[in-house]
Every structure is written in structure tokens, then in C-alpha cells.
Amino acid sequence: MKAKAFNPQIFLEILCYSVFAALMLYLVSSGKYLSYVTPRMEPYLYFTATVMGIWAFAGLARLFRPQHKIRSAHCFVLAIPILLLLLPHSPMKTSNLAGNYVGGNTFSGITGQSAVENDPAQEELIPEDSADIQTDVPEDEYSADLPGLDAANKKITVSNDDFGLWLSEIYMNMEKYKGYTVVMTGFVFKNPEMLREDEFVPARLMMSCCVADLAPVGLLCKYDKASELKADSWITVEGTLFMGKYEYDGVEYDDPQISVTKIIPAEEVEGYVYP
Amino acid sequence: MEIPIYVVTGFLDAGKTTFLNNLLNGKDWRDIKILVVQFETGEEEFQSRYDNCHSLAFPKKLLERQPKEILGRIRSFIQSGELDEIWIEWNGVVPFSELQALLLAPSLRSLCRIQKVIHIADGANIENLIGRTGGALPEQISNCDFAVVRNTYSAAAYSRVRRLMRGINSGVDIVNIHETKAYNDIYKQLFGKKEHPVSLFFLTAALIAVLHFAAGPVLETLQIPVNTVINIFLGILLQAVPFLLIGVMLSSAIQIFIPREWIERRFPKSLGPGMAVAILGGFCLPVCDCASVPVFRSLVKKGIPLPVAVTFLTVTPVINPVVILSTYYAFSGNMTVVIRRVCFGIISSVIIGVIIGIWPPKSQILSGGALDRLMCSCGCYEDAESITTFKGKAGLLIRHSQSEFFNVGKYLVIGTFISSIFQTMGTGIFTSARNGAGLAISIVIMMTMAFVLSLCSSSDAVIARSFANQFPMGAIMGFLVFGPMMDIKNVMMLSAGFSKRFIGKLLFTAFTVCFAVVFLLSGLGGMKI
């Protein structure tokens, strides 16, 4: 007899809530959410999953309370995102953007990186144990804890995961790293409006809030044969850090730049940089 | 076999009995054995011409005190005679859900089922009745399959009534009884088969999936970057949904836990202190613009003066701590920008509030009309203040926030979709329009861009910064101040609850005020980063 009193609308709602909640949990636990939003959103996505879970649970009480008028269109609010998340699509790549950055093809994403100084989110990127070591270890030794830093040989090998970390580290301590050799991987970013013939940026895409605001970031490189580099191709750059100047709004700013010594083609790097 | 039940609802004197008399005494019903059950005795009596109708009448008192007896009598009638149809004239002041509960009682459930529900409305006075006569009437309207309207002799009156009805039961079919083919339409509605909504849902979902596979690659080859649109859409949505959830929870909590009288007694009556409270509230609510829209709506419903509520709506996304922090970081700790953004935001929203106060909207601003002020539009028509237990209120909170989520969410989805298309097209058209333009034009360009891009207010500072070397600081300020207040996403979400006219007025006021404030003040300051 129970089946007769079944309420299909509530069933549909419960279905949507549960699938949406499950998808949120899946996106967070698999790290796939990073293709859409920044790590800062993680607690909010957990919150969403929790609320949806509670809603689904609360709906159970009404599942066997039938109603004459059944509606279903409203469920598309959840169904459309669910469908789009499930249907195959690839994460955004530099080629997708084809220069159409929201930032209006400006150089700013790169200079904007200096904005990240003191960013609390940035500090979280530094391994937690470093704070403990800091107290009794001399300054130089401490910085040896930065991944890829070879202080003895004045060389920094920036791994793909530490791109953002190193970018802000170099911006914060420009003086300290002057003369260091840097190895980093990025795609060739050229922009005739902002960059000269002999300049390019081995850039990565930075997401400051969500995938809608992807913008290239990186260190400016001086390279005589820059014009020979194919835009958007992936390369590993090796070069020496020096203090360049970057003019902005009539004022010149110090800007760490790389004088390139070696360029080798590289594999495309998945994922984005988060401030 | 289950006997089909046709239910006629409508307020007292709406013309339910007349309708039954006209319909059931028609030729088509002559050979059909009908039981007419009346839960109301109006001025007109039901009279059967062909002697094929039996009728039962139950007064409202009996319904309240002895529903079991009613059940028993209907049941024995069904079992004794060979009935083809049951027609029920339901009482105008009792919610439809009570009839539903009655007919779903275990003793009746297997014998009959509701086939169609028809709502009869007297077009001449329905507008006055709604909102003044409690929750039963809108509940009946929202549950009907189609409505029959009488007494509307002008096209304008008819379209008003239709708008009202559709505001409560979206997309419902309405028949004007005075049209010549009215009875044809009624027959069609009564006996027409409609696809089950749930199967329609799955059908549409499958269609979307098929479309994705079939049309997606085709569009991609035509240089239309579907993949990019989907990514941006999902990005903005994943960003917005949690905040929308916070917003609907907050606004539902206001609706349910804060009694109207309390606000009327405690909230500052005069504009000045009211605005101060709004600004303080905006500062204390660390959410982005997606959350402030539902809260704004519930504040208006609860009777907060409109200028104050508007100030709250416009100031919250500009001055909340998250936004202040993100602006600080985006502009490399440049305090001038932060202070100016906050000050311009406060000044603009206060002026917008004052303007709305001086020239108040003449017509209803809530799209549900008077109805919305009385109760929520969520389909749960129980009065929030009549439920006293915490458990009951918590249940209501959940249902209320769910329906508000769907209500506002649908516009969020549409708005996000539009703005993701704009974002995919790139901002080139804006930046190229900038060439050679003066400060005023630049400000307008940046404000339009902020409107179109619909960025989350906690992230737009980074984007604004990226335009800093193409646009003067004043224009950047326009982007930073106007963007969070109004954008495509917000306007769409507002239209879930407010009349188009009011939204248009608000948008125009906000745009003009922000422009004036930014233009005049940045001219004075001569600002530079």
C-alpha cells in the first residue's frame, strides 16, 4: 500500500540533493575541484555537501506523503550543474584561453604577483614544520628548507608544485636571490603590448578565485631569441636572476627578472597556481 | 478500479456551484454516474437535470470534528453504487492539503484517486481576496491543474488576474469562461493527458546529455568554445552555491525566527539610525553578493523600511571584511584603494537608499504582490508564527530554505550562464573601447564590464588590479564599487522576488549614483596608486 502513497517530487529532490552532495565530496576528496575553484573553497564545498545531505535526509520524512500537483522543473537548478560536472569536459588550458584572459591581456597578472606578499594563504603553502625549525636554526639554514633550493650552489630548481610558492618567495626577497640560477617550467607568454621583442614570460595560469579569472603569472625573462619561441608552447627555462625594472603608471618598480641561459622544451604541466 | 475524482476549489462565491451546474448538466455527462460531494453550501444549490447525479453535502463543522464520518459515508457510497466519477466542491477557506489527506486515508486510497483539480476564481475580486484571507486561497491556487476565471470582461483585467495566478502557480493554464471556446478548453484540460513531470525531467536531462555529445563537437569546430563556457560556468557556480546556501539559510531564519512585530518594535524608525544599522549589518555579514540578495528580500518582507534594506543590499558586498582583505592584497597593501573602495561604497549605497526613499516605487515591489508580504512564496503555507515547537520550526526552516534555494538558484544558473558566455568572449571589446576615451567614458566602460562579468565580490579586486595599467584609477574604482552592488547575476536573482520595474529603477539609480560618486570624488582626490 505504501508505494501508492509515494511522492515522486520529493523523491526527485532527494535524488538531486544526494547526487549533488556526493559530487561535492568526490570533487573535494579527489582534488578535482581545483580545476574550478581555489583550495580556499574546500570548507565551503564541505558545507554545501553537508547542507545538501541534511536536506536529503529531511526529505525522507515527506517521501511517503503524496501530493497531487507534482513539479520537477525546479530540480534543474541542481541537475544542470550535476550533468555538466558529470559529462566529459577537459580542464581549461592555455590554448583554450587563446589570449582571452579576463585580465584583458595585461601584464598585470605577473606584476600582480607582488600583491601576494604577506598573503596568509601563501604562508600556508610553506610546510608546517618549518615554523618549528625556524626558532633555533639560523636564517640561512631555514631557507634551505624551501623545496628545490640549493643555497651552496646558488641554484633554485622550481618544481611544478612549488611554482606559486617560489614566485612569491622571490618577489618577497628579491635582494637575497639576486644572482641565483633559476630553473622553472611554464608556457611561453608573449604580449606585444606589454613585452619587448627580447622578452617573454615562462608563465603558469593563476586562479585567484575561480576558473573564470585565470591569468598568467611568472617571472619576466630576457632572451635574445625570444621571438623564435612559439607562444603557448611549454618550456623549461634556466637563467640567472637579476634585478630589472618594470614601469607601471609612470613609476618604475624593482622587478626580479631572469637572464636566460638555456631553454629546453617541456611537457605540459597540469593544474594551476593558487595565490 | 479506481474512481476518478475531480476537485473544484475556489473562494466563497467564486462560482463553484454554478460551474458544476453548467458543466455536469451538459449532454456529455448524461450517461455518466456521478457523485457530487459538497463541502460548502453557498447561495446556489447543485441541481441535477438528468437524475444521474447523487449529491452529498458536508458542512465545515463536520469536516473539522468528524472527518471519519465523512470518510465512512463517501466510502459506503462508492461501494454501494456503480459510480463513474466523483466531483468534489471543496470549501474555499480550507487548504487543499486537508482534502488530499482525507482522500489518501487508507480506507479510501484504493478506491479513488484525484484526477484533476480545477480552481474557479471570480476575476472581479480575487485581487482583493488574496493576501487578506489567509493561506488557503493561494494554497488552492498553487495546487490546481488549471484555473477557470470569470467576471473579467476587459483584456487588461484578465491579464492582471492571469499574472497573479501564474505568480502563485507558475505556468498554470487559465481558461476565461467568457470566451466562446471556453468549454472546449475545459474539456481538453479535464481529459487531456499530460506527460508525468518526473518522466519529463529525466527526458530533458537525457536530452541535455545527448545534446552535449552531439552538438558540443560541432560548436567547437565552429570556433565556439563550449568547453571553456562549461568550465567557467561550473567555476562561478561552485563558487556561488555555498554562498547562496548561506544566504537562503540566513534569510529563512529571519523569516521564521524573527517575528514581524519584533522588527517593527525594535528596528530604528528613522532613516539615519536605520542606515547605520544596515551598514553595520553589512560589515558583520562576511558573505558575497549571492547571499545578500535573499537576505534583502526577507528584510523587505519583514517590513524593514525599503531605503534601509536597499542600503543593506548595496553596501554588504562592498564593505564586508572578506572583500576588504582581498582588495588589500590585490592592490599590494595600498590602503588608499581600500579606504576609497569602502568609503565610496558606503556613500553610494546611502545615497541610493535615500533616493529610493525620496522617490519610492509607486507599484508593488515584491512580484508576488500583497501575498508575499503575508507569507512565504515557498509553497509551505503554514504560518510561521503558528508553529511554536522548535522541531516544527526547524522543519519549516529547511523547507523554506529549500524552496528559496530553488527559487533564487534558477536565476543564479541563468545569470551565471550568460556571464560565462560574456567572459568567454573576452574583455577585448571593453579594452579597445577605451582607446582615447576620457575619465567619464572609462568609468562607464569599467562599470559596464563589472556588470557583465558578474564576478564574485571577494575576487573582483584581483581582476580590477589587472586592468590598472589600461584604465585610470577612477575607472577602476567604478568597477570596484558598482560591480559588487549590481551585476547580471544579482539582477537575475532579484527578479526571483521583485517586480521588473523596481529592479530597473534600482539598477538605474545604482548605476547613476556610483558613477557620480566615483567621478566627482576621484576628480577631487586626484588619486594615484
List keywords for this structure.
heterodimer, A: 275 residues, alpha+beta, 9 helices, B: alpha/beta, 7-stranded parallel sheet, 25 helices, 7 strands, elongated
Strand content of chain B: 5-15%
Biggest sheet architecture of chain B: 7 strands, parallel
How many whole angstroms does the radius of gyration of chain B measure?
Answer: 28 Å
Stretches of chain B where pLDDT is under 50 for at least 5 consecutive residues are 369-379
Average residue-wise pLDDT of chain B: 80
| Distance between the ends of chain A | 58 Å
* Unreliable stretches of chain A: 102-143
Count every beta strand of chain B, where a strand is a DSSP E run of 2 or more residues: 7
Strand order of the largest sheet of chain A: 3-4-6-8-7
Backbone structural class of chain A: alpha+beta
Quick rundown:
The complex is a heterodimer of chains A (275) and B (529). Chain A is an alpha+beta fold and 275 residues long.
Walkthrough of the structure:
The complex is a heterodimer of chains A (275) and B (529). By secondary structure, chain A is an alpha+beta fold. In chain A, 32% of the residues lie in helices and 21% in strands. Chain A is elongated, with a radius of gyration of 24 Å. Helix content of chain B is 63%, strand content 8%. A seven-stranded parallel beta sheet of chain B has the order 3-2-4-1-5-6-7, sandwiched between helices. In chain B, helix 8 (155-168) links the parallel strand 6 and strand 7 (173-176). In chain B, helix 14 runs parallel beside helix 24. Chain B is elongated and about 85 Å long.
Write the layout of secondary structure elements.
The complex is a heterodimer of chains A (275) and B (529).
Chain A: H1 8-30, H2 42-60, H3 76-86, H4 94-97, H5 108-111, H6 120-125, H7 130-134, H8 139-143, E1 149-150, E2 155-157, H9 163-172, E3 181-189, E4 199-206, E5 215-217, E6 220-222, E7 234-248, E8 251-265
Helix pairs in contact in A: 1-2, 1-3
Chain B: E1 3-9, H1 16-24, E2 34-38, E3 53-57, H2 60-65, H3 67-80, E4 85-89, H4 96-103, H5 106-109, E5 112-122, H6 126-129, H7 136-143, E6 146-150, H8 155-168, E7 173-176, H9 182-191, H10 197-221, H11 226-257, H12 260-266, H13 271-284, H14 289-301, H15 306-319, H16 321-330, H17 335-358, H18 370-374, H19 390-425, H20 428-433, H21 439-453, H22 460-466, H23 473-485, H24 488-494, H25 500-525
Parallel strand pairs in B: 1-4, 1-5, 2-3, 2-4, 5-6, 6-7
Helix pairs in contact in B: 11-14, 11-19, 13-15, 14-15, 14-24, 15-17, 15-23, 16-22, 17-23, 17-25, 19-24, 21-23, 21-25, 22-23, 23-25
